[in-house]
Prior knowledge:
Strand content: 35-45%
Structural class: alpha+beta
Low-confidence stretches: none
Order of helices and strands: HHEEHEEEE
Largest sheet: 6 strands, mixed
Radius of gyration: 14 Å
Number of strands: 6
Mean pLDDT: 94
Helix content: 25-40%
CATH topology: Nuclear Transport Factor 2, Chain: A
Amino acid sequence: MGEDCDCLAEVARLHQFFEDWFHGKLPESDFAVCEASLGSGFTIVTPGGELSSRKDILEAIRRHRGGEPADFTIETVGRHCQRIGELHLTSYEERQTGTRATSRLSSAVLSETVQGFVWHSVHETWITS
């Protein structure tokens, strides 16, 4: 798996958005960044095994704006990517700190457009709970 795929910067960018959003540092209008990043058929399998639709996950993210304490962080490490035709398949470890420390292994399917990357699917598995 490659370390130089352009989608690796996208993984870091979107997770930085989440951290800033959950800290309440971003205005409501910046939520359009998140909406544009998740494709129309986006789904996520959470570490607990729950399948969520784009609508459900966007509502949850929107509601959680400013919901984390100042010491909350999100870090993505061990990012790897491979291109399969027009798609990017990436995996990374997501570490969160704050109220409770967690770590999950995530895989995601993205595509690249002239406007940037679009996320189609994410599957997360607990490394720690």
